[in-house]
Specification:
Blueprint: E1 10-12, E2 15-28, H1 32-43, E3 48-52, H2 58-61, H3 77-84, H4 92-96, H5 98-109, E4 118-119, E5 126-129, E6 135-138, E7 141-142, E8 156-161, H6 169-176, E9 179-183, H7 195-202, H8 205-218, E10 224-228, H9 236-247, E11 250-254, H10 261-276, E12 280-283, E13 287-293, E14 296-304, E15 307-318, E16 329-330, E17 335-336, E18 391-393, H11 403-406, H12 409-426
Parallel strand pairs: 2-3, 2-15, 3-12, 8-9, 8-10, 10-11, 15-18
Antiparallel strand pairs: 1-2, 4-7, 5-6, 13-14, 14-15, 16-17
Length: 427
């Protein structure tokens, strides 16, 4: 996993400094945009380092792949996007372009062959049940959730687990006009029934058989069974098939509160593929300093007291996300980017960060703050001039989008991570 060895140690005040390691490309951030950038570069034969202080927001929020929630379910996504970006020249999608977005999504999908694949419904959005009992539009869904589309009233049994606080089966069932039950989870002993604990247990054949038989006893006229999205991290398609064979009904997962087991599957799939391609991972560390000379970044430094390690590269991609991931930070006056000190597009005054109404239909201005780039995803200043000639930016840290309101987060991350790497390799 790109193990790092202590070498060339020299004493500096308060710390040890290790000799510099050089790469073709360093990706800062291990969210979906960073992983896509690393995949794109590794597929081109580049020597890549990807680093981050955690495992990114994939393991928290991502269950499906949103591209554009405003797209009508009856319209093909490419057609909807072509119309949507016409009046939004600064939006990341306008810089990516529809053709490149399709290429990026194809590259993402190549990591998920059957049996655990992602699919669209007629190349457009579908309405998927959520853990709140609502229906939300999304574009790419894992095969384990496909059975939840178009659930007919009274035809699904929603199954939860007693003590599991992140999914309320009866509440979800009421919203979907179906029936809900709660099972006593076997084999938990003194463990609290969390999403990760249940995901580990459901991978055991005995656990699957026990809950499958109990669900079968509870069935009436239902032809589908909805479970929280905990069907394991390693082989969820097999877990789903086994349960369907025992129960005699179609099984589907329903997205729930963080952590996201489906997001963990995506992260693990990327990580395994990247390691096979020789990509080095450095997880649990954050960049403490970027050393610049003129219009180039010479190296980055990672502090793990008492050791400072320097890493240099020909090119760098910044994909650190927004506030949750630490890619953006706010002080009393403004929002700042902490690694390269890049200028940001943001409201001029702090009092302009939020709209007059907290629950307004319009997104708050602060959510559009971020890094402005040129068409190649290189950061630019207020005058449009390139700031660093060997640095690119990707993902939600980019300005001029409202990915939560647009329901476009994963689409932006996948496409801009892909294109930033493409542009960096072609520079």
């Amino acid at each position: 996993m790109g193990a790092l060895h202590l070498c060339g140690v020299g004493i500096i005040p308060g710390a040890f400094k290790r000799s510099m390691l050089h790469y073709d490309l360093i990706v800062i951030g291990v969210g979906l945009s960073g992983l896509m950038a690393a995949k794109t570069a590794a597929a081109a034969g580049q020597k890549v380092l990807i680093l981050g202080k955690g495992t990114g927001s994939l393991c928290l929020f991502s269950n499906t792949i949103d591209v554009l929630g405003e797209s009508p379910t009856a319209m093909k996504m490419t057609e909807a996007l072509s119309q949507w970006i016409e009046g939004r020249p600064l939006h990341p999608y306008s810089k990516v372009g529809v053709k490149n977005l399709e290429e990026a999504l194809s590259s993402f999908l190549s990591l998920f062959p059957p049996p655990y694949s992602f699919q669209t419904i007629d190349n457009g959005n579908c309405l998927l049940p959520t853990g709140a009992g609502t229906l939300r539009p999304t574009y790419l869904i894992p095969i384990t959730m496909a059975g939840g589309i178009s659930v007919e009233e009274g035809r699904a049994l929603i199954v939860g687990f007693k003590g599991f606080k992140d999914f309320y089966a009866h509440y979800v069932a009421d919203q979907l006009r179906c029936r809900g039950i709660n099972l006593e989870p076997p084999d938990l002993f003194y463990q609290e029934p969390t999403a990760t604990a249940l995901a580990r247990l459901v991978e055991k054949k005995s656990f699957r058989e026990n809950i499958g038989r109990e669900i079968k006893k509870q069935l009436r006229d239902e032809t589908r069974v909805g479970l929280p999205a905990i069907l394991g991290t390693h082989d969820p398609a097999q877990v789903k098939d086994d349960l369907e064979a025992i129960i005699g009904a179609k099984v589907f997962e329903i997205p729930i509160l963080p952590p996201s087991i489906p997001g963990m599957r995506i992260f693990n799939c990327f990580k395994e593929w990247l390691i096979r391609k020789g990509v080095s991972f450095l997880l649990g560390y954050s960049v403490s300093k970027a050393v610049r000379r003129g219009k180039r970044c010479e190296r980055i430094e990672v502090l793990h007291p008492p050791i400072v390690t320097s890493y240099s590269a020909d090119r760098y991609i910044l994909a650190t996300g927004r506030f949750i991931g630490g890619g953006l930070k706010a002080n009393d006056e403004k929002v700042v980017e902490p690694i390269f000190s890049l200028p940001l597009s943001q409201p001029p005054l702090r009092e302009d960060w939020f709209g007059d109404s907290f629950l307004s239909d319009l997104p708050h201005p602060i959510h559009g703050a971020g890094i402005s780039t040129d068409a190649s995803f290189q950061p630019v200043d207020a005058g449009g001039d390139m700031i660093l000639e060997n640095v690119w930016a990707a993902g939600s840290i980019l300005a001029h989008h409202h990915c939560i309101d647009e329901k476009s987060r994963e689409g932006i991350e996948i496409s801009t991570g892909y294109m930033a790497a493409k542009r960096a390799l072609g520079a």
